[in-house]
Amino acid sequence: MIDFATDSTFKLTPASTRDARSVEPLLIHGEELIHAFKSVRDLVVFTNKRIIAVDVQGMTGKKKDFTSLPYSKVQVFSVETAGTFDMDAELELWFSAVGKVRFEFRSGADIRQISQMIATYVL
Fold it and tell me: This protein's superkingdom (predicted)?
């Protein structure tokens, strides 16, 4: 599970459709995959209802933790675009009663589009 007591950060690059499909068994009726991003082993999938963070554990990677972060629990969010020297964009989300999650996007992610998507489902 995401450690909400500390500043959890996911450093992400766009993921393949195949990677994103690994969360399909968790989706509910009417829920659709929108975007997927991965780190070295972990995966973050944005749907039209929530964010699903997949934490791959252990040496073999067979054990996985799936954390569901519903948009309905987001109280505040912040977006920081990439700059000239800092090429990473950031998205911070504060969830009621649990804390903050920070996503750092490497090049190739359209942070403005992600921000609009978050706003659509949160506001």
Answer: Bacteria
| Tokens matching residue 10 | 């996911």
Residue 54 sits at φ, ψ, to 5 deg, of -110, 115
Rounded to the nearest 5 degrees, what angle is found at the Cα of 87, between the Cα atoms of 81 and 93? Answer: 40
For residue 39, give the DSSP letter: -
CATH assignment at residue 109: 2.30.29.50
Q: How would DSSP label each residue in 59-99?
A: TTS-EEEEEEEEGGGEEEEEEE---SS---EEEEEEETTTE
Phi-psi region of 52 (alpha: psi -120 to 50; beta: other; left: phi over 0): beta
Residue with tokens 């509910």: 28
Task: Say what the pTM is.
Answer: 0.87
Domain range for 20 is 8-122
Cα 100 from chain centroid? 12
pLDDT tens digit sequence for 20-53 = 888 999 999 999 999 999 988 889 999 999 999 9
